[in-house]
# Entry
Amino acid sequence: MSNLGSIKRAIEECSAAVVISDDPKKIKSSNRIILPGVGAFADGIKNLKNLGFVSAIKEIICDHNIPFLGICLGMQLMANKGYEGGEEEGLCLIPGAVKRLESSDPSTRIPHIGWNEVYKTRDNPLFADIPDGTDFYFVHSYHFIAENAENIIATTPYCGGFISAVTLGNIFGVQFHPEKSGRMGFQVLKNFLNL
# Structure
């Protein structure tokens, strides 16, 4: 449920080898995992469950401490729960819930589509060499609401403000699409690959 081709090309541009797999056993030999995603939370988590990825993801990132990056829906799926397409339990990797963006301003467009600033709430290696307030490309109607402020590493001032990046140990998530965000998006991917 994503544009795997553009993610693959972006990672290859960052000088890394990429394996796209629908086999949970294959990811156990990876030294980095990226979970991209486009679409509804309920459909995304059901796909992961049906393919047997939930336990494989948890094993490799929790037991083997392999760096993990969720992109857009992939970040949202890391939450405990999501409400897009019906209430569903997520991967439970970072405490929080995923709810629809809401605005009191009728001129604010939802879905949020286009370039917007990302402001760091604290230093994190995922944003090394990236100026604060850099624009990244977004496409989403739902957002991650973290239970713990220490998991938030960046926010975006749209629709009253929302969390645009999270972390917990070796687990990272970005609401924007680094593969569609030009040079600074590629820097995010390079930073992840260098963890």
